[in-house]
Amino acid sequence: MAFSQAPLPFDPSALEPHLSAKTFEFHYGKHHAAYVTNLNNLTKDTELADKSLEEVIKISFNDATKAGIFNNAAQVWNHTFFWDSLKPSGGGAPSGAIAEKINADFGSFDKFKEEFKTAAVTQFGSGWAWLVLDGNTLKVTKTPNAENPLVRGQVPLLTVDVWEHAYYLDYQNRRPDFVQTFIDNLINWEFVAKQLGSA
Ligand code: MN
């Protein structure tokens, strides 16, 4: 059974003007697709080919002989989770249980936004910023390269990709502007609430 690329949950032009169709042509059509192809090539005819993507990520993490498998498997998972974290006319403040939990664990929505933006902007080089459930507490974290909260025993609720390929076509070197736009206009809070609800 080969690993497959989940369909993009919106039209490639649906997030314009914040993220262009051109960005999705490369980010979804080339980068994400290549991770899927690489993962299938690396696991072909091995016992990992029949495992779930999450199992492959956990098995290959911190195993130097499986570094390529980990990097590609985690990047397949991370990108699918990132597409689900986005929606047209998203962003702004959430409501309901997720809003109450953010206020309880961060102090306020503004504090959460500040912490999330700082994590995303200060991740040196390639990586990801996350909102996670750690035990029973919401936390903001950042991970380098392909690493993700699954291997740290945390439940991912939201992510933003801060690899340069995620924003360079639309924002060039201005990562802070991309992250601010993500927070203000793109976060899919319904998806975050669903992740919290099933955690
Ligand atoms: Mn990416």
Please describe what this structure looks like.
The chain has two domains: 21-84, Helix Hairpins; 96-197, minor pseudopilin epsh fold, CATH 3.55.40. The protein contains eight helices and three strands, in the order αααααβββααα. The protein has helices spanning 21-43, 53-60, 67-84, 96-106, 109-122, 164-171, 175-186, 189-197; strands at residues 127-134, 137-144, 155-161. A three-stranded antiparallel beta sheet has the order 2-1-3, with helices on both faces. It starts with 20 loop residues before the first helix and ends with a helix. The mean pLDDT is 97. Manganese (II) ion (MN) is lined by residues 27, 31, 79, 161, 163, 165-166.
Topology readout:
Blueprint lengths: L20 H23 L9 H8 L6 H18 L11 H11 L2 H14 L4 E8 L2 E8 L10 E7 L2 H8 L3 H12 L2 H9 L2
Antiparallel strand pairs: 1-2, 1-3
Helix pairs in contact: 1-3, 1-6, 2-3, 5-7
The chain binds manganese (II) ion.
| Large-scale geometry | globular
The string of secondary-structure elements, in order, is HHHHHEEEHHH
Task: Determine the CATH topology of the largest domain.
Answer: minor pseudopilin epsh fold
Stretches where pLDDT is under 50 for at least 5 consecutive residues are none
Bound molecules: manganese (II) ion
